[in-house]
């Protein structure tokens, strides 16, 4: 009996073992990734991974683009880029009024915007423009000896050749004017961002004609706007007064203000009783200057091409991201400034009497009115609600995100193919991009010196009255991030320290990383901004990307969300973290984001963005419209001019070109493989047509040269 019992136990154990083996095999077969998505594991490693042909082999026969998520916006397909002159536009003469040289300060966005204004001013004054000097990329910033200033980021020869019919451009001043500049005999101006065209004509042009050379120092990311003065009674705007000649003449049909006031207005604000007057500007120039607006477009979208090495690496990144056949969604977080750090520093300066005013930075209020960036996890929830699969390739732009990789962890948990430039490029490729550089100390951080035993005893004796039941705790270790950058100077000293050689070099490198992100963001099939149109008037990365995508391919998927509306959606989910799975919530999100893609979102952007930065909304001046069955909406600004819907009709040659393109696309669509599978699931999203050319840009590559200009003030 005992032997029979043992035999039954053995058979039962064997049966359980067989079931376990079968179950394990079944689970492994289910969870095994299919060959179509083998790319997702290759995008995740950090620097140094191998881009082999087998990994990035084309697999387009396994995918089709989901028209609902990636296809062009049908209502915007009739918009085409057209920045050519439309009226009598003479070629600049060889004899000009003089030379203009300029120093550009700031980051990538300010530099790009300021160059466009600088070329426009040179055309306005009939001046010869000297290749501007980018202060972030001078040789004094420890960059590679191969480059100097402008050529570190942009292609000089392409810049000069592209604008030969607009402005005379040279690489350096004549020798006699170089000598005058070294002796500090050249008049230099620091125009404000809201400087009007008449300011240059009345104030700067006479000096230029007399001295034959002037210098401009541009700090604000621009220097040409149509200025306005407005009266404020707390939050109410009573009147708008055009600034006709800089800040010297302020005249209106109903208001005549004494000239003594005008000098105060030039410094920012003034007070008169209960009224406040502030100086502001709009990038929308008068109708008589539409050709200057189109010149801005030709500079930004045609003349400003990155140097050849940057273009090659940027295009290589796009090719690697597209190699599996999946579309790309670019996302720029916009987390570059932290309000609490600024608040802490302002509190110190107010206490010291440097600043006067109350401290009123409330993060929750800022979030409620849409003044804060969307967090990466919030963007992930929005994309999930739209129907994007967790296999979507998301490229995170932004050379330096506040909070580092930590803030991207929730987004990567939702979308496993979330990458940035460090995961698409090798370290060697990025190193070759910056060129050969002189070595710097690898670790300039020096921890505070340790205290001796005598110093510790002295501190103990001065610790306070006895009895002291416990000795003082040991000193907490000082971490590196507490002594560097914002964290260091904001808590340790009253003034910001001079940047170290490493800081200067990193600032120059950041221009290159922003350029790579810019290329990928413009080329991507879809773009989602985490922060744009902050209302400050400063140019920002996302707005410039959205403006170029609007110019080159208006129908490409470019989201223009209203952060105030999205904050209301997320406010609903705070009490229930799983509420975003609610179907009605998803429908509300989809409705808003789909509107942001269409004419509604474009019109809203025109009202917010264009008065601040023209390059973020170059319509209608720099576009034309191919006639279609759908009649576009027409929106006018406060001055009666069209912000949308007033585009000219495209020339005949452009219509024929578009017809041929549509015919080729239709023929290619008829010959597609029928054994394809949809990449993503989606429901409740408006059906759109696909367009293989959506979101593409042409980045030309030309030879590069250097400028040997020297300035004693550099």
TrEMBL record:
<feature type="compositionally biased region" description="Basic and acidic residues">
    <location>
        <begin position="451"/>
        <end position="460"/>
    </location>
</feature>
<dbReference type="GO" id="GO:0016757">
    <property type="term" value="F:glycosyltransferase activity"/>
</dbReference>
<keyword id="KW-0472">Membrane</keyword>
<dbReference type="GO" id="GO:0006004">
    <property type="term" value="P:fucose metabolic process"/>
</dbReference>
<comment type="similarity">
    <text>Belongs to the glycosyltransferase GT106 family.</text>
</comment>
<dbReference type="GO" id="GO:0005794">
    <property type="term" value="C:Golgi apparatus"/>
</dbReference>
<keyword id="KW-0119">Carbohydrate metabolism</keyword>
<protein>
    <recommendedName>
        <fullName>O-fucosyltransferase family protein</fullName>
    </recommendedName>
</protein>
<dbReference type="GO" id="GO:0016020">
    <property type="term" value="C:membrane"/>
</dbReference>
<feature type="region of interest" description="Disordered">
    <location>
        <begin position="435"/>
        <end position="478"/>
    </location>
</feature>
<dbReference type="InterPro" id="IPR019378">
    <property type="entry name" value="GDP-Fuc_O-FucTrfase"/>
</dbReference>
<keyword id="KW-1133">Transmembrane helix</keyword>
<dbReference type="GO" id="GO:0009507">
    <property type="term" value="C:chloroplast"/>
</dbReference>
<keyword id="KW-0325">Glycoprotein</keyword>
<feature type="compositionally biased region" description="Acidic residues">
    <location>
        <begin position="678"/>
        <end position="692"/>
    </location>
</feature>
<keyword id="KW-0735">Signal-anchor</keyword>
<comment type="pathway">
    <text>Glycan metabolism.</text>
</comment>
<feature type="compositionally biased region" description="Pro residues">
    <location>
        <begin position="466"/>
        <end position="476"/>
    </location>
</feature>
<dbReference type="Pfam" id="PF10250">
    <property type="entry name" value="O-FucT"/>
</dbReference>
<feature type="region of interest" description="Disordered">
    <location>
        <begin position="661"/>
        <end position="714"/>
    </location>
</feature>
<keyword id="KW-0294">Fucose metabolism</keyword>
<keyword id="KW-0808">Transferase</keyword>
<feature type="compositionally biased region" description="Pro residues">
    <location>
        <begin position="438"/>
        <end position="450"/>
    </location>
</feature>
<keyword id="KW-0812">Transmembrane</keyword>
<keyword id="KW-0328">Glycosyltransferase</keyword>
